[in-house]
């Protein structure tokens, strides 16, 4: 096995005139929990479908566990588990019967099947409830069972498309805990999508941020967060208006400005000195209340990051 679970080069997929995935090049290290983070419609699901060989790339290439997605999709699907939009669970069957059924589909021998189903259900805290009908379960429990289903055949790589979407915060947190534990125990590489930065930060060793099909940033979550914070400055006070914003925008350190409700938000270019901005504001008669580097919270930091154009590293 290579030390790289996924490698893409200029991966591109167009639907008519829409470029859903646009020149994405990335590497996912084996064993990582890798987060693919982006707003709705940014190309996350399309990327997963490309990686599973369910869609042909328009341009570029991808290899998954060393197999080319164009020519070797069968091998990829054998060695990967996936939880996409539909869980594939049968609501009128018990949890155990669902897993038994899929284990047969994967041709696991009977003894191995029993053991695998028990291990997975136990690992997810569902063993005691194995005889219950899935249709009566909460969304969070169904989602756990769907993860178990995706892991039945001991895949080397697990794709999870927005695994916590639609879960309440408590169920989402529980699923995250179980996922991390399970991934480590199974030694499986995880590629998961989310539009929630806090989630990516809790779960993932590495994160790629995608916006409008383009890769905007890639790195450890704490690095991305630090960078997003470093790149922002917020000034509150009296006298902050469009005229002031235009003056500030002329400073070489400033990439973009926005003024609203007596608050001036600046996006900064790397490595520039920001003290002249404060001097300028004072000179122009602004009564400054507060100057803050970075956004107010993580969500804002993420928005600042996806708000910047093109790859920036
Ligand atoms: N089969 C398809 N045909 C046409 N457009 C599609 C198709 N699949 C996805 N798209 C479009 O591609 C863009 C990216 O979609 P998607 O990958 O589902 O985004 P995400 O999963 O990040 O929400 C969206 O604008 C979506 O409408
Ligand atoms: Mg999607």
Labels describing this entry:
313 residues, Rossmann fold, single chain, 37% helix, binds adenosine-5'-diphosphate, binds magnesium ion, 2 domains, Alpha-Beta Plaits
Write the layout of secondary structure elements.
Layout: E1 4-15, E2 18-29, E3 33-37, H1 44-51, E4 59-64, E5 67-68, H2 73-79, E6 80-83, H3 95-105, H4 110-123, H5 139-151, E7 157-161, H6 169-186, E8 189-194, H7 197-203, E9 206-211, E10 214-219, H8 221-230, E11 232-238, H9 242-249, E12 254-260, E13 263-268, H10 275-283, E14 287-293, H11 298-307
The structure holds adenosine-5'-diphosphate and magnesium ion.
Strand percentage lies at 25-35%
Q: What gross morphology would you assign?
A: elongated
* Number of discrete domains: 2
Low-confidence stretches: 308-313
CATH superfamily of the largest domain: P-loop containing nucleotide triphosphate hydrolases
- Biggest sheet layout: 6 strands, mixed
What's the CATH topology name of the largest domain? Rossmann fold
Report the radius of gyration as a whole number of Å.
23 Å
Distinct ligands, ions and cofactors found in the model: adenosine-5'-diphosphate, magnesium ion
Identify the strand order in the major beta sheet: 6-7-8-3-9-10
| Terminal CA distance | 29 Å
> Number of helical segments?
11
Mean pLDDT: 90
- Spell out the helices and strands N to C: EEEHEEHEHHHEHEHEEHEHEEHEH
Give the class from helix and strand content and strand pairing. alpha/beta
Instruction: Please give the CATH architecture of the largest domain.
Output: 3-Layer(aba) Sandwich
- Name of the level-1 CATH class of the largest domain: Alpha Beta
Tally of extended strands? 14
